[in-house]
Design brief:
- This protein has two helices and seven strands, in the order βββββββαα.
- The chain is α+β, with helices and mostly antiparallel strands.
- The strands form two sheets. Strands 6-5-4-1-7 form a five-stranded antiparallel sheet, with no helix packed on it.
- The longest helix has 9 residues.
- It is globular and about 40 Å long.
- The termini are far apart.
């Protein structure tokens, strides 16, 4: 197990999960198959930046990180992701909604 590289010394599970079950989220980055997604080749793109999905379950990894199983409606993929790879669409701060202006209403319609 010495070859597991932890990219962060923070223990996320010491705090509550950042996202809730059923919460609408967007991917902050491209997610490729690391070999854990059956039926797709390693390196295949599973999620594109900006894809919208819903948190379906919350688990932990290495007793350190939360892993959010996110179902992406357009692709049909359910992918495990870290909080740093996601952005909420349901609980945006007021200043972000103000900056989005009319686009904020469109986000609400996507629901």
């Amino acid at each position: 197990m010495a070859d597991i590289a932890r990219d962060d010394d923070t223990v996320e599970i010491a705090s509550p999960p950042r996202f809730e079950m059923g919460e609408r989220v967007a991917s902050r980055s491209v997610i490729r198959n690391d070999g854990t997604y059956n039926g797709r080749d390693i390196g295949d793109v599973l999620v594109k930046k900006g894809d919208v999905g819903y948190v379906r379950s919350i688990d932990t990894f290495l007793q350190q990180f939360y892993i959010y199983a996110v179902e992406f409606i357009e692709s049909g993929h359910q992918v495990g992701m870290r909080a740093k790879e996601l952005c909420t669409l349901d609980h945006l701060p007021a200043e972000v909604l103000a900056q989005l202006g009319e686009r904020a209403a469109l986000l609400g319609e996507l629901r």
